[in-house]
Amino acid sequence: MSPRTKRLRKISNPPSIKGFKPYGPDIKTQKEPIYLYYEEYEALRLCDYDLLNHHQSCITMGVSRPTFTRIYASLRQKIATAFVEGRPIVIEGGKVYFDSDWFRCEECYCFFSNSEKDKNIHNCPLCNSPKIATYTSNELEQEAVSILKQDICVCPNCGFEEQHQLGNPCSKEVCPKCNVLLRRKRKLKYR
User: pTM of the entire structure?
Assistant: First the structure.
């Protein structure tokens, strides 16, 4: 039996730093660093900085309550080890996605996010066009709603139009006036 696939954890506010280093007179030898995953950093931020409880935090990250508790326990163990042993902390990696920077290509109209926060986006990953627009998550949601509102089914025979219903192909809908199969009419170019 294969293990379950890990669900991606949502990171709303990535760290502005890459880690910490201990200092003092006794720190002369370079010790191996402790690696904190992004989801562990997010758990620390939500619980101890934003003062949310575990239930609110797990909803924010999009994981179950027991999963969040395991992430938080792992984080506390790693921080304790780093403090007691005087080891540096490095923040990187993990099964996460960032919910902040979204882009839309003005050429092929695809939406994409920046999964690597360290790198700037200059071109569309599909068509390599440099014409890209930046969206916040709220603007992206409004854009998607406006696209769905402009999605219309039309009769090629008499011109009858109706709002497209998600999950219902237009080619299976029949015009109530002339009994002809409807087709999709797109006002916006998007893929």
Answer: 0.57
